[in-house]
Write a sequence for this structure.
């Protein structure tokens, strides 16, 4: 049987990875792990871009991934700085303890 | 490789210890790099390994060490049925996505185009640089500015020692 890996399979894998990332955001309460789940979701979208770009036969998908990588790096830097600042203030990284804005 | 990435992703959300979660994420990122190479995105794959598996993971591990890993997170539920609801929501979302993909019988785009000219999507450094510095040059400069601002912001956030100490006393009164 001839099994060809079409872009659809990459899309499916990306959807599954994105779902796992979203699930992690919903069930974890450690801010660091939630951040890792955000990275996971960004990577899933990157895989979609690459697969679609290849299927459509142009390089724009890869360029989009390049920019997503840059933005993700900037986001990680700022986000981790915020987490460290919060940790200095509160000695915790659990989002359950951060109920300052509770109405 | 797809299986490895899913396994790593599951480790991220299941591991009690944040270091194990980081290792799972590392496995996922590496297998994503391999999948990029399979899709002819050579330059992006190299950048993925260097930036993500190198810099970002180092940063993550550094912060994990800074915060301390001795306190393992309890994975219990605070909101009742939180996990079951999240699982159902995630399954529904992934199911819808896969259904949308499968509706086109895995060929929603003409696959012929890649077979016709694989060189058109060969992501070498030259091929990437050509459009990057022509029609995308404004976005390129914008990301340069963004990175500078992010670095400056991170330094500003991390170096305010005295105001943070003052706030700590205020919250101590509460």
């Amino acid at each position: 049987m001839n099994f060809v890996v079409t872009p659809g399979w990459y899309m499916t894998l990306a959807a599954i990875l994105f779902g796992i990332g979203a699930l992690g955001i919903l069930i974890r309460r450690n801010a660091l792990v939630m951040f890792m789940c955000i990275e996971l979701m960004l990577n899933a979208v990157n895989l979609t871009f690459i697969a679609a770009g290849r299927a459509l036969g142009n390089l724009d998908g890869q360029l989009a991934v390049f920019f997503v990588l840059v933005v993700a790096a900037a986001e990680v830097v700022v986000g981790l700085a915020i987490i460290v600042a919060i940790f200095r203030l509160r000695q915790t990284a659990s989002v359950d303890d951060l109920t300052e804005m509770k109405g | 490789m797809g299986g490895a990435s899913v396994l790593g992703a599951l480790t991220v959300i299941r591991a009690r210890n944040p270091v194990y979660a980081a290792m799972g994420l590392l496995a996922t990122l590496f297998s994503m790099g391999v999948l990029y190479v399979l899709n002819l995105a050579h330059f992006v794959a190299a950048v993925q390994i260097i930036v993500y598996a190198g810099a970002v993971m180092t940063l993550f591990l550094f912060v994990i060490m800074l915060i301390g890993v001795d306190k393992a997170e309890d994975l219990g539920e605070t909101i009742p049925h939180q996990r079951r609801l999240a699982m159902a929501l995630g399954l529904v979302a992934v199911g819808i996505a896969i259904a949308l993909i499968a509706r086109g019988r895995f060929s929603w785009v003409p696959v012929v185009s890649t077979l016709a000219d694989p060189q058109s999507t060969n992501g070498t450094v030259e091929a990437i640089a050509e459009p990057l510095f022509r029609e995308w040059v404004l976005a390129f400069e914008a990301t340069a500015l963004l990175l500078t601002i992010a670095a400056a912001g991170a330094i500003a956030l991390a170096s305010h020692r005295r105001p943070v100490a003052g706030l700590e006393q205020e919250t101590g009164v509460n």
Notes: Chain B is about 75% helix and 0% strand. The two ends of chain B are 51 Å apart (CA to CA).
